[in-house]
Amino acid sequence: MSVRVPLFKKHDMPIQLSLASLGNSNIYNAPAYNANIIIYKGIQSHIDFAIKTQDRKVISLQNKTIYCFLQNREGTKKLVKQLWCEDPSWGRFTLTFEPEEVEDFDAGSYKAVFLTVDDEGNQDVLYTGMENQTELTAIVIANQYDCYIPSIEIDTNGWILHQLNDENHTKFYESDWIRANKSKNQGLAFYIDGYTCVEIKGSNELEPTHEDKSWFTIDTVELQADNGVINHFYEVACEWIKFEVNDIKPIEKILYRN
Question: Nearest 5°: phi and psi at 213?
Fold first, then answer.
């Protein structure tokens, strides 16, 4: 005989999951509270969980590691996160999403699946509700918080020196590649003492190479200042940004506003 227990909601309770391999198999006792997971972009998001047996009794999970598999409905964005144990004797776990981990996730609905792995590598799925559901809905919310994002200082040490095979044997220096701002707004501050010419390049390839075909020119600018700062702003969509300069000595540093 199976016993069904209806769901109820209480907003100060952790989200409850059940480990179906443990407990009385004759009792069908779904997790009591399976709310949506809310993830806010720009801040840390903490979600509390309580993991129990199939008949909703407390179990010890000292020999198990819990993972959350988060992905969009199309399967193109994925993130695997480990839940951290707060109280193993009561099956209490916390899931934390850092701001940088969901930076590339668009606002919207995602699915979350939970899995346990023991010390021997054996896996068990965690159930999230009635009818043996194995996933929860995660909602990513953007534009809720104004967050300060610091500028990135681009190190001018270690730039690669190139020499072209032309009649003048032209030399130029190439910077490291940096991740571009997903908002399409690229802000640059050049700290200059002297004169140099800078070619700012972008790439939309996932893994660009040093070859010219991987890059396009955003702008070519001549910079001249006596120990001053020259700012440039561009609205362009790209995955990566790099710099090529004919003389690196006048550049004290570059700040990229990401």
Answer: -65, -15
